[in-house]
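Task 17 of the worksheet. Students: predict the tertiary structure of the chain below and write it out as C-alpha coordinates. Keep your answer in the requested format; marks are given for formatting as well as content.
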Amino acid sequence: MPPDRVVYTLRTAVASNTGGPYTTIWDRVAVSSAGTLRGVVAVSSSITSNGRTNSVEVFRQADAPSVGSNTAATVLVNPITLSNNNAAGSGSIRAANDRVAAGDQLQLRTYADTTGPTPAFVNLTATVEVERD
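Model answer:
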Protein backbone atom coordinates (compact mmCIF):
# COMPACT_ATOMS: atom_id res chain seq x y z
CA MET A 1 0.00 0.00 0.00
CA PRO A 2 1.52 3.39 -0.97
CA PRO A 3 1.92 6.06 1.73
CA ASP A 4 -1.02 8.45 2.15
CA ARG A 5 1.33 11.46 2.08
CA VAL A 6 4.30 12.27 -0.09
CA VAL A 7 6.93 14.99 0.30
CA TYR A 8 8.37 16.80 -2.72
CA THR A 9 11.76 18.44 -2.21
CA LEU A 10 12.87 21.55 -4.09
CA ARG A 11 16.53 22.59 -3.79
CA THR A 12 19.03 25.08 -5.08
CA ALA A 13 22.67 25.62 -4.17
CA VAL A 14 22.41 29.38 -4.73
CA ALA A 15 19.52 31.79 -5.34
CA SER A 16 19.79 35.51 -6.05
CA ASN A 17 17.50 38.31 -7.23
CA THR A 18 18.04 37.44 -10.89
CA GLY A 19 14.95 38.50 -12.81
CA GLY A 20 13.13 40.18 -9.90
CA PRO A 21 10.84 39.00 -7.10
CA TYR A 22 9.46 35.47 -7.58
CA THR A 23 10.22 35.38 -11.31
CA THR A 24 13.17 32.98 -11.51
CA ILE A 25 12.40 29.29 -11.04
CA TRP A 26 15.30 27.83 -9.04
CA ASP A 27 14.02 24.27 -9.01
CA ARG A 28 10.95 22.37 -10.15
CA VAL A 29 9.46 18.94 -9.59
CA ALA A 30 6.61 17.11 -11.29
CA VAL A 31 3.76 15.88 -9.09
CA SER A 32 3.43 12.10 -9.42
CA SER A 33 -0.13 11.66 -8.16
CA ALA A 34 -3.14 13.83 -7.40
CA GLY A 35 -3.71 15.08 -3.89
CA THR A 36 -4.26 17.94 -1.47
CA LEU A 37 -1.47 20.33 -0.47
CA ARG A 38 -0.92 20.18 3.29
CA GLY A 39 2.23 22.17 4.10
CA VAL A 40 5.46 23.82 2.99
CA VAL A 41 8.68 24.22 5.00
CA ALA A 42 11.82 26.05 3.86
CA VAL A 43 15.36 26.37 5.24
CA SER A 44 18.64 27.88 3.99
CA SER A 45 22.10 27.30 5.44
CA SER A 46 23.03 30.92 4.70
CA ILE A 47 21.02 34.05 3.94
CA THR A 48 22.40 37.42 2.86
CA SER A 49 21.28 39.56 5.76
CA ASN A 50 19.13 39.13 8.83
CA GLY A 51 17.84 42.70 8.43
CA ARG A 52 16.44 42.21 4.94
CA THR A 53 13.49 40.47 3.37
CA ASN A 54 14.45 36.90 2.53
CA SER A 55 11.36 35.05 1.37
CA VAL A 56 10.54 31.81 -0.35
CA GLU A 57 7.50 30.92 -2.46
CA VAL A 58 6.29 27.68 -3.99
CA PHE A 59 4.22 27.98 -7.15
CA ARG A 60 2.05 25.39 -8.89
CA GLN A 61 1.98 25.25 -12.68
CA ALA A 62 -0.82 23.15 -14.15
CA ASP A 63 0.20 20.38 -16.53
CA ALA A 64 0.53 21.34 -20.22
CA PRO A 65 -0.13 25.10 -20.22
CA SER A 66 -0.51 26.76 -23.61
CA VAL A 67 2.75 27.77 -25.27
CA GLY A 68 4.25 30.95 -23.84
CA SER A 69 1.77 31.26 -20.98
CA ASN A 70 2.77 31.54 -17.34
CA THR A 71 -0.27 30.54 -15.39
CA ALA A 72 1.67 29.45 -12.30
CA ALA A 73 0.23 30.64 -9.00
CA THR A 74 1.56 30.57 -5.46
CA VAL A 75 0.29 27.85 -3.16
CA LEU A 76 0.95 29.92 -0.01
CA VAL A 77 -1.10 32.57 1.80
CA ASN A 78 2.12 34.56 2.34
CA PRO A 79 5.73 33.89 1.39
CA ILE A 80 7.88 32.08 3.95
CA THR A 81 10.31 34.57 5.50
CA LEU A 82 13.68 33.22 6.60
CA SER A 83 15.38 35.37 9.25
CA ASN A 84 18.45 33.42 10.31
CA ASN A 85 20.86 30.89 8.89
CA ASN A 86 19.61 27.31 9.31
CA ALA A 87 16.28 28.45 10.80
CA ALA A 88 13.32 26.73 9.14
CA GLY A 89 10.10 28.52 8.34
CA SER A 90 6.70 27.12 7.44
CA GLY A 91 3.94 28.46 5.26
CA SER A 92 0.17 28.16 5.25
CA ILE A 93 -1.52 26.74 2.18
CA ARG A 94 -3.90 29.21 0.46
CA ALA A 95 -7.00 27.04 0.70
CA ALA A 96 -7.80 24.07 2.91
CA ASN A 97 -8.57 22.00 -0.17
CA ASP A 98 -5.84 23.33 -2.51
CA ARG A 99 -5.24 20.51 -4.99
CA VAL A 100 -2.52 19.29 -7.31
CA ALA A 101 -2.97 16.87 -10.17
CA ALA A 102 -0.57 14.30 -11.53
CA GLY A 103 1.70 16.11 -13.98
CA ASP A 104 1.43 19.52 -12.29
CA GLN A 105 4.73 21.19 -11.51
CA LEU A 106 5.83 22.65 -8.16
CA GLN A 107 8.32 25.50 -8.53
CA LEU A 108 10.75 27.08 -6.04
CA ARG A 109 10.95 30.89 -6.30
CA THR A 110 12.52 33.52 -4.02
CA TYR A 111 12.79 37.20 -3.20
CA ALA A 112 15.43 39.09 -1.24
CA ASP A 113 15.76 42.85 -1.22
CA THR A 114 19.46 42.79 -1.99
CA THR A 115 21.04 44.47 -4.99
CA GLY A 116 22.77 42.76 -7.86
CA PRO A 117 23.40 39.08 -8.42
CA THR A 118 24.85 38.49 -4.94
CA PRO A 119 23.47 35.18 -3.65
CA ALA A 120 20.61 35.79 -1.25
CA PHE A 121 20.26 32.13 -0.28
CA VAL A 122 22.82 29.34 -0.11
CA ASN A 123 21.72 25.69 0.07
CA LEU A 124 18.00 26.52 0.05
CA THR A 125 15.56 23.63 0.47
CA ALA A 126 11.76 23.71 0.45
CA THR A 127 9.62 20.64 1.11
CA VAL A 128 5.98 20.38 0.07
CA GLU A 129 3.70 17.84 1.71
CA VAL A 130 0.84 16.40 -0.37
CA GLU A 131 -1.88 14.10 0.94
CA ARG A 132 -2.62 11.62 -1.85
CA ASP A 133 -6.13 10.84 -3.03
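Marker's comment: The chain has one domain: 5-132. DSSP finds no helices and ten strands in the chain.
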